[in-house]
Amino acid sequence: MNIFTGIAFVFLAPLLGGLVAGFDRKISARLQGRIGPPLFQPFYDVGKLLQKENLVVRKSQRLYMEFFLVLIILTGAIFFSGGDLLLVIFAFTMAGVFFALGGYKASSPYSFIGAQREVLQMMSYEPAVMLAAVGMYMVTGSFQVADIVAYPQPLIFKLPGLFLAFFFILPIKFRKSPFDLATSHHAHQELVKGITTEFSGRTLALIEIAHWYEYIFVLGIGYLFFASNVWLGLVMTLVIFELLLVVDNATARVRWQAMLGSAWVVALIAGGLNIIYLMLLRG
Amino acid sequence: MASYLLYFLILFPLSVALIIVLVRKEALFPVIIYPASAVLIAASCLLIGLSAGGKPMLIPAHFSWVEQAMLVIEGAMSAYLLFLAIKQRDWFVSFLVVVQAALLFWFHFNFGHSAHAEANLFIDLFSVVMGLIVGVVGTLIAVFSVGYMRDMHHHVADHAAPVVPDNRPVFFGIIFLFLSAMFGVCFSNNLFWLFFFWEITTVCSFLMIRYKRDTVSVKNAFWALRWNLLGGLAFLLGIIFLFHTQHTIELDKLLALPKALVMLPIALISFAGLTKSAQLPFSSWLVGAMVAPTPVSALLHSSTMVKAGVYIVLRFATSLEGTLLGMLIALVGLVTFLIGSFICISQNDAKKVLAYSTIANLGLIILCAGIGTYEAVWAGILLIVFHAVSKGLLFLCVGSIEHKLGSRQIEDMSGLIVRLPKLAFMLEIGIAGMFLAPFGMLISKWAVLRAIVDSNPLFAIFLIYGSAATLFFWVKWLGKIINVEKVYTNIETGICRGQWLAMGSLAVLTLAICALFAPFAAIFIEPYIIALYGHSMSLGAGNMAVMTIMLSMMAFFPLAFLDRGRGVKVAPPYLAGANVGELGQQFRDSLGGVKAMHMKNFYMEAYFSEARLMRLGVLLTVVFLLVIIAVGGLQ
Fold first, then answer.
1. A192 and B576 in contact by Cβ < 8 A?
2. For chain B, which residues make up each domain, given as ranges?
3. DSSP-derived pairing of the beta strands A55-56 and B594-596
4. What is the pTM of this model?
5. What part of A 210-229 touches B (C-beta under 8 Å)?
6. What is the mean pLDDT of residues B243-259?
């Protein structure tokens, strides 16, 4: 991993991420007994959005979303260049903060509720992600993604609890049921359109592209648990994603209390036990 | 040369204080305070010149009259406090004052002749950093207070608050006396001197908290006094124990002794540090102190008072490293951080949010001190610096906002960016400085995390949870400022130049130390760490490059606003009904009635209630303190 893989992320992630989104819609449709849209539908959607009029409530609201996109790209670029995992998480948080602030700035009650819930989601998933980074550090002795990838055994054997905690919060990051509180792909359980209610046209297209980058980055963190072998890693990443889609289609949105409580408790118990186990190993 | 600078820093604010109290002319306050502040800031910056090398420089400062003078002043302070406490019928405070004074005089009459220090003052890099904070941030707060206090006394009637007796000469006098005492705390090597300055900060804080003289202020002032006096008593006992067992009263000698021999004095003085830095279970005094005028809160809770507490505990870091005592102190800090951060979520009062976040951040510094590894101390000193600047800025902004809006509820700050654009912008800088990458506090939190993962990963778990809560309450505040609920007009007038200067300087400082933190750490912190531990830490060149990229990107964000209207068409928000009027604030619902829209933040009172969390925190930390006492008793 070096600066070139980071640059490759910048250019390839939207293509790959768009494909993942298309794959997602296809599989979800099959799970629901529909045929579903073409694989490239997300690209068509974004292309169309780019041509539409950009209606806003506050003039500056799009700036926050543009910075969200830029920061997500930066996050992924640091990650795929093999940088410091904690720094990556901080950059990711910063991107998320801009996304939420965009929702606040839009100054509409629905985007406001969405923004609140977005921050709540960030608070819910952060412990699991940070603990995963701590666990990886304890096993490999480094926070550098490059060193973590170079570790000879699959990390999952030493980090099963942390992987569980990470998998548990994954729906939050993919905006999937049961934790799609801020904004959802399922219209039947959505408050208008959540945080993106007042976003349209080009800005909405940028948000969509940012989410594609986010997909690839988050799957990249999942990959780290199996990174000792490239093929194992890729296959397991696909399996994780498949499982996520099944969960998405099998569950309904929960209330925020259930999300915050369960995400924190799972991270505390599964992650905490895992860390105690690592401390015992270290002696 | 160095010795004269220290004398000047300690005595100059004192003389300014005397002049203000004697002059008592309102028109002369700015004429005295502004130039004096300029001199003080310049003199503090001269400290940088003394920072070469990590070795402490000892300064004998033998004056035969100083000790007698200190004793007389301490006696007078005790008599005054005793008088007030009896008048207030606060028997606990009276008891503490009497015991402390008796102990002090008993010691001096019996052992005073043999208890002499080779060097009464000293200076090393850590004191230089502390001196800079007191001299620059503390003085800027003094500058701010001139305009703020004038506003407060002229406009207080507008807010239907009870009229506050105007006693500004004494107020400003105490502020400068406070700065003087803080310099004394930072530069004393003789522990009796340190204790003397320590007690002056206690008394000054008491006088400032009760400034408004209403029942609540007086009650909270006594509450603060109670815990700080308790700490002071522990401090005094610590020195006396140290003298009786090791025959020294000097800080540098104490730190050089084998740690097993001096655990008890260190425990007692650290206890004083915990009370002064408002750790659980003593935190309530800091929250109560929020009744004081805002410059007081800023001074006590960002750059001075509470920093004296963490300063002394962090001094002992090398002795605390790897000991049970260190572990328990770290636990107190950790619990305080966690509970403080959680409580912030349910607070709507901006000053209370700042108070609890101060408590939480001090907890983080105490955690660093208790762990005491080189990484932890590095992170702890950085935290002190970043927190002082950002928190000072936040308090001053909130104070100004309160005067303009007549409220300091976060829920009333909707559209602040339109109503008070410059203040809101600086508030944003301050908030970003508290939690967002790549700003200061986050750099330090990152360093703290690395430090505790290496020493005790279990602590890291709780740190991570507290840090997640931090994210939530800062973002929702930030969101409220930029969210525009109604049509507002700009009301940003009548804030005087001195106030703007103070807030502007702190905002620039928040950004500057973030941009320049690598050279800052290399010059001021790393040599100190190397002198103590033989090696130091850094965040790595690659990471620094990434941080710089992030920071420069942030610099573009305000610039992007020049372009904000391009390519968009403004439309009213969607309100789940037909909008009524052009403004998008009202809509017609399905029954035909006209409804107004409101936006309110989450406070999650049921989960993060102040009362319940405080009870839990107090319970946990009392247990830790009891364990400390039990272990100390067994030894």
1. yes
2. 17-315, 322-560+604-635, 574-600
3. unpaired
4. 0.95
5. none
6. 91
